[in-house]
Structure formats: structure tokens, C-alpha cells
Write a structure and sequence with these properties.
Pfam families: Ras. The chain is of the alpha/beta class. Helix content is 36%, strand content 21%. It is built from 7 helices and 6 strands. The structure holds guanosine-5'-diphosphate and magnesium ion.
């Protein structure tokens, strides 16, 4: 790259998962650019951002993938893309991260089925592409939304069904700045994390609390396993 000269020893893919509106995109914005926005737009499709950091004198590029909570909807977006490009023939999908570059976002909106089973197969294809090669995951819930915590076992199941066996997982209770609206106790989450062998932290993307710590912990652990 022109003038870059940046030497990268490792690239680690980390995925963000969890219900919609728990703060995944803001956690990423805080980590990648040290930014935060109160009126963040819902993520459409899949995107990733990178940040390079030094771990044990090595340069580690973290490639953090972010998605909308409704992965079904993403599958549908890809289906529409597929149909727009290839017509209605019903070929198999070839979905990988390069799809990120093709501007499928213009196909947002209601997903009509292009052919029977399209949505289901789009969902599966996108889900596996999202998790493929991921070495770490931040499993995010909102401490003020009980439901987002109650859904964590499902997210965990999907993650374990698709990702690398050694994936490093951090359970993240976000929005710790909203203590007066808390609906999930720290103890409950800690207990769940211990039972499931997950790291656990409460974060605030708004106040920049523990965001750095969460990523550092996951990346350092990945580094220990893969270096
Ligand atoms: P996503 O759907 O999981 O990506 O959630 P977003 O990152 O889009 O955030 C959803 C909403 O929660 C937005 O209005 C954010 O500004 C807000 N939000 C995200 N993180 C925090 C946080 O740490 N504290 C507070 N108070 N609000 C947050
Ligand atoms: Mg988002």
C-alpha cells in the first residue's frame, strides 16, 4: 500500500453478535474510531472495520465484523442480490466476505422470495459466511433489556454451531451507564458466563467503559491460542 509500510503479523477475525439495538455498532465505532453516536442507524447487511494493535511485540490486525440483529433479513438481502444478478435460476450461492464490496445495501427492503427456499438458503449461506474463520466473538446484550439477555443462549448455540471449535467468546453487557434502568444483574450474567466458559464484562460504548478491555482480552486470548 502506498506509503503504508505497515507490517501485520496476524489478522484475527472477530464477530459481533446479539439482538438488534444492544449497541454492537457503537461498540465497534468506539473501538475502531473512538466514536459514538446516540442516533446510530440500524446496520444493514454486513460490514467490518479494522484496527491494528500490538500484542507481545507483534502487530495484530483485528478485523471486526458487525451485522444487523435480524440475520434473517440479511439473508434476504443477499437473496435479492443474488436474484438481481443471476435471475431466477436458483443456483447455489457463493457468499463470502467479498460480497461486502458489491453494494448490496441498495437492495434493502422487504424480501420477496425469488424461488422456493431462497430465503432459508440465503440465511444459511450468510450465516456461515459471517462466522467462517472467526477466532473471537463478542456476544452482546443490553443490561436494560432483559429479553436481549434471555436470547443469549440462542446466539451461543448459533455461534457454536458455525464457528471454530476454539473460538474465544466474551459475553458483553452493554449500556452500563444506564444503571438506573438495569434489568439484568451483574451476578446473573457472571454466573451464566462461568457456566458456559465465557469471558464476561459490562461495557458502555457511550462512556467508553471496558470497550478497549473487552477487545484486548479477546484478542490477547486468540493470540495465545494461535501464535
Ligand atoms: P446495534 O443494533 O446492536 O448495532 O445497536 P447500535 O449500536 O445501533 O445502538 C442502538 C442504540 O443504543 C443507539 O441509539 C445507540 O446510541 C445506543 N447505545 C449504544 N451503546 C450505548 C451505551 O453504551 N449506552 C447508551 N446509553 N446507549 C447506547
Ligand atoms: Mg448495528
Amino acid at each position: 500500500m502506498a506509503g503504508g509500510g505497515e507490517k501485520v503479523d496476524y489478522v484475527f477475525k472477530v464477530v459481533l453478535i446479539g439482538d438488534s439495538a444492544v449497541g454492537k455498532s457503537q461498540i465497534l465505532a468506539r473501538f475502531a474510531r473512538n466514536e459514538f453516536s446516540l442516533d446510530s442507524k440500524a446496520t444493514i447487511g454486513v460490514e467490518f472495520q479494522t484496527r491494528t494493535l500490538v500484542i507481545d511485540h507483534k502487530s495484530v490486525k483485528a478485523q471486526i465484523w458487525d451485522t444487523a440483529g435480524q440475520e434473517r433479513q440479511i439473508g434476504a438481502l443477499f437473496v435479492r442480490f443474488h436474484c438481481a444478478v443471476h435471475g431466477f435460476a436458483g443456483q447455489d450461492f457463493l457468499v463470502d466476505h467479498r460480497l461486502k464490496l458489491v453494494g448490496f445495501e441498495t437492495y434493502s427492503g422487504d424480501a420477496t422470495l425469488c424461488y422456493p427456499g431462497a430465503q432459508a438458503s440465503g440465511y444459511r449461506a450468510v450465516t456461515s459466511a459471517y462466522y467462517r474463520g472467526a477466532l473471537g466473538a463478542l456476544l452482546v446484550y443490553d443490561i436494560t433489556k432483559r429479553q436481549s439477555f434471555d436470547h443469549i443462549p440462542r446466539w451461543l448455540e448459533e455461534l457454536r454451531g458455525h464457528a471454530d471449535k476454539n473460538i474465544v467468546i466474551m459475553l458483553v453487557g452493554n449500556k452500563s451507564d444506564l444503571e438506573e434502568e438495569r434489568a439484568v444483574s451483574t451476578e446473573d450474567a457472571k454466573e451464566f458466563a462461568e457456566k458456559e466458559n465465557l469471558f464476561f464484562l459490562e461495557t458502555s460504548a457511550l462512556q467508553a467503559t471496558n470497550v478497549e478491555n473487552a477487545f484486548q482480552t479477546v484478542l490477547t486470548e486468540i493470540f495465545k491460542i494461535h501464535s
